[in-house]
UniProtKB/TrEMBL annotation:
InterPro entries attached to this UniProt entry: CobW-likC_sf, CobW-like_C, CobW/HypB/UreG_nucleotide-bd, P-loop_NTPase, Zinc-reg_GTPase_activator
Family: Belongs to the SIMIBI class G3E GTPase family. ZNG1 subfamily.
Organism: Lampropedia hyalina DSM 16112
Domain CobW C-terminal: 272-366
Gene3D superfamilies: CobW-like, C-terminal domain (3.30.1220.10), P-loop containing nucleotide triphosphate hydrolases (3.40.50.300)
Disordered: annotated segments: 225-269
Protein name listed in UniProt: GTPase, G3E family
Length: 367
């Protein structure tokens, strides 16, 4: 049986996760989706149809979706769902997990990598974070959970942008991109999101693309490894092509480029930060593995997401690696093309990561 695709939906209290989820559940998309609801807040999914009598309630909806509310451990629920699917008791093709507004998505993701049975049956597709434009600045200032949710995201949806000024939206986008330059940011209204923006985003696929917001790269230029990057501006532009399928981002990108220079955007010194590292010399596989292993051992709990496309000595193929907390995986990607400049690129997103130690260790891991 093919693995079941899993989308993790996160976001702070009141951001609009349930609105988005209800839209997905009621749309005639012809897909059979099982939803694991892990929030007993004011507005559960369609309260009328979900009456939680026991530990778990499963409701089959008219469009083939299944809803479960759970009060037990996620692992047990996943095992139970997989078993019911194997036995033919339940029929579904994918799972959406709605985390509680105060949840750190890390442990949820790790369940799928650490638990053998879950890893066999399920495949994490992406983490989607819903951010409330009206309250986000305060939430990000005051709550680390909100900052972590942004750091983990593969896609960020901004809700309630109609309740704030354009300048406030741009300031928020600027802040979010410094926390997570990997995730495209899109404003949405009342959960009206095309399904292809929610499902099959392949955020955890080991692919040879490393989407980093181009404006973020341009801002980083002066203080990212001058000796490695003297003429990197060309790369900034190639990202626009890579971002082609996120065309919605571009309106924001260019405008926010103009705002970037203003110092008033920089008064948020968030503990969740990101930085991009590039190298023009190939990595020594043994040195790099030793260094990353040591870093993950020490700083793993603070490393939210990290990914790289690397030029490794001894192979003509790109080496792709990514990780969540202490869990790291790598794979061989496509071959470097003739004439392609072999630049290794990495992005690290984490809490108070020691950038100088990481950069020094990566410098020393090159041939």
């Amino acid at each position: 049986m093919a693995q079941i695709s899993v989308t993790i939906l996160t976001g702070f209290l009141g951001a609009g996760k349930t609105t988005l989820l209800n839209r997905v559940l009621h749309e005639a998309h012809g897909q059979k989706i099982a939803v694991i609801e892990n929030e007993f807040g004011e507005e559960n999914i369609d309260n009328e149809i979900l009456v939680s009598e026991g530990r778990e309630q499963i409701v089959q909806m008219s469009n083939g979706c299944i809803c479960c509310t759970i009060r037990e451990d996620l692992r047990a629920t996943l095992h139970d769902l997989a078993e019911k699917r194997r036995s033919g008791e339940l029929d579904f093709e994918r799972v959406i997990i709605e985390t509680t507004g105060l949840a750190d998505p890390g442990p949820v993701v790790q369940t799928f990598f650490m638990d053998e049975e879950a890893a066999e049956s399920f495949l994490v597709d992406s983490i989607i974070t819903v951010v409330d434009a009206k309250h986000a600045q305060t939430q990000l200032d005051e709550r680390q959970e909100a900052r972590r949710q942004v750091g983990f995201a593969d896609q960020i949806f901004l809700t309630k942008t109609d309740l704030v000024s354009e300048a406030q939206v741009q300031a928020l986008i600027h802040r979010l991109k410094h926390m997570n330059p990997r995730a495209p940011i899109e404003a949405v209204h009342f959960g009206e999101v095309p399904l292809e923006r929610v499902l099959d985003l392949r955020g955890f696929n080991l692919n040879a693309r490393l989407d980093i917001d181009p404006d973020f790269l341009r801002e980083e230029e002066p203080h990212v490894h001058d000796e490695h990057c003297g003429h990197d501006h060309g790369h900034g532009h190639c990202h626009h092509e890579e971002h082609g399928h996120h065309g919605h981002d571009h309106g924001h990108d260019h405008e926010h480029g103009e705002h970037c220079k203003h110092p008033h955007h920089h008064h948020h010194d968030d503990d969740v930060k990101s930085f991009v590292y590039r190298a023009r010399r190939p990595f020594d596989p043994v040195k790099l593995e030793d260094f990353l292993g040591a870093i993950v051992n020490v700083y793993g709990p603070k490393m939210l997401r990290y990914k790289g496309v690397l030029d490794m000595q001894g192979t003509d193929r790109k080496v792709i690696f990514q990780g969540v907390h202490q869990l790291m995986g790598s794979d061989l990607g496509p071959a470097w093309k003739d004439g392609e400049e072999r630049v290794s690129k990495m992005v690290f997103i984490g809490i108070d990561l020691p950038r100088d130690i990481l950069e020094q260790g990566l410098d020393q891991s090159q041939v």
